[in-house]
TrEMBL record:
Molecular function as annotated in GO: ATP binding; electron transfer activity; heme binding; metal ion binding
Entries under PANTHER family matching the protein: ATPASE DOMAIN-CONTAINING PROTEIN, DNA-BINDING PROTEIN-RELATED
InterPro entries assigned: AAA_16, Cyt_c-like_dom, P-loop_NTPase, WH-like_DNA-bd_sf
Domain Cytochrome c: start-end pairs: 168-319
Pfam family, one: AAA_16
Protein name from the UniProt record: ATP-binding protein
Organism of this sequence: Solihabitans fulvus
Region of interest: Disordered: 1-21
Keywords, in A-Z order: ATP-binding, Heme, Iron, Metal-binding, Nucleotide-binding
PROSITE patterns: CYTC
Keyword Chloroplast in annotation: no
Length: 397
């Protein structure tokens, strides 16, 4: 098979050639956009799931939907070591610029940009020297007395209100998309929930769409108790057999090529239905196939190449971030689950390692901060990365 025509595209956040199995989520967001356009109240949205299920891809698709509707839309990726002000300012700056081309009053747009600049400048420490102060790329004077109190909760409510009113002026809305939302700092999560709560009560046309790991709902609930009712939670999971087949068949057929039924069986068994793995194994199978159609033998021959690439780029990059003590903990989890994608009791991990549970708490907490494991319920721990246990058991240390 011609590698130049290979349609499959494994990559972080890269849209697959066929976005299979996400029709329900896309339709639900379309309803959100339409309801907001008609001035009806609507909850913001939170997508949760393991790594490799396509949350980032779906966020990008939702952003495109909003833009096609004439909305302003900005997307950020949260980082645990940095606050929300700077990236959020950049995202909303982009959204406002998209709205500005439709607004007939430039002075109104400049006024909101001034508020945004005032909000952004509060990211600088109070004692920072002038030469060290970060300057946002907003070419208007900063406003005074609006979104500049230094209290992130107050400032975010005021900023969101002004941006939403600007969108309402042009008969549109604003979508703010936040990837890796579980990494937003606790103070900022609380402020974000408060701002969304305020906007939902007023029916303002601003929607937040967050995406994160499975424990994100618990983090939001711990921040603000009403967050359980504030957001609509959507679990993004692996694809069903039919959806997985569509993700493989549709791109191949568009290239006027074929794949036999046994090869589809083999691809599903290897990938487990996880979108990222489907792309990896299908790409390798296409390249390995000597002719059309792709066969089960082609999948078997190419599987090692796909797994080698995953071991370096998908699993290995995460494993390398762990300390020796953390790797010991991860290995114990893999052994207790026989490499399956399942949770394990933290007490069992301690017993397996012959240690006291309290002595393993630092390693477990650090792994959670690094996003390698998560706890959906008290006393339970699981990998955030599908097939990670299988990777660990197959690794020769």
């Amino acid at each position: 098979m011609d590698p130049v025509r290979n349609p499959f595209a494994p990559g972080a956040g890269q849209r697959p050639p066929e976005l299979a199995g996400r029709d329900r989520e896309l339709s639900a967001f379309d309803v959100v956009l339409e309801r907001v356009a008609r001035g009806r109240p609507e909850r913001s949205l939170v997508l949760t799931g393991l790594r490799g299920v396509g949350k980032t891809v779906l966020l990008g698709e939702l952003r495109s939907m909003a833009v096609r509707r004439g909305w302003g839309a900005g997307k950020i990726e949260a980082r645990p070591e940095s606050g929300l002000r700077r990236p959020l300012s950049a995202a909303l700056h982009r959204a406002i610029r998209e709205l500005a081309v439709r607004h007939r009053a430039p002075e109104r747009v400049e006024a909101v940009l001034g508020v945004l600049k005032a909000f952004a400048l509060r990211a600088n420490p109070d004692n920072a020297k002038l030469r060290d102060r970060w300057q946002p790329g907003i070419d208007v004077p900063a406003a005074q007395g609006r979104a500049d109190s230094g209290d992130i909760e107050i400032d975010l409510v005021e900023l969101f209100t002004d941006v939403a009113e600007l969108a309402k002026d042009v008969g549109a809305g604003v979508a703010l998309l936040i990837d890796e939302m579980q990494d937003v700092q606790a103070e900022d999560i609380s402020a974000l929930c408060a701002a969304c709560h305020e906007l939902s009560q007023s029916g303002a046309p601003l929607v937040v769409v967050g995406a994160g790991l499975p424990h994100l709902p618990a983090l939001l609930s711990a921040s603000k108790s009403y967050s359980e009712r504030l957001f609509r939670y959507v679990r993004i999971d692996r694809l069903s057999r039919g959806e997985a087949d569509r993700a493989v068949l549709a791109p191949i057929e568009r290239e006027d090529a074929g794949i036999d039924a046994h090869a589809l069986d083999a691809l599903f068994d290897a990938s487990g239905g996880y979108p990222y793995f489907i792309q990896s194994y299908a790409k390798a199978a296409w390249d390995a196939a000597p002719g059309d159609p792709i066969t089960a033998e082609d999948v078997a021959v190419s599987a090692q190449e796909a797994e080698t690439e995953l071991a370096v780029g998908f699993f290995g990059s995460r494993y390398e971030r762990a300390t020796p003590a953390e790797r010991e903990y991860l290995r114990a989890m893999a052994e207790l689950t026989d490499g399956k994608d399942a949770g394990v009791n933290t007490t069992q991990v301690a017993e397996h390692l012959g240690r006291k549970p309290s002595s393993l708490s630092p390693a477990r907490d650090s792994l959670m901060k690094k996003g390698l494991v998560y706890s959906a319920e008290r006393g339970q721990i699981a990998f955030t990365v599908p097939h990670f246990g299988r990777f660990l058991l197959g690794r020769e240390d």
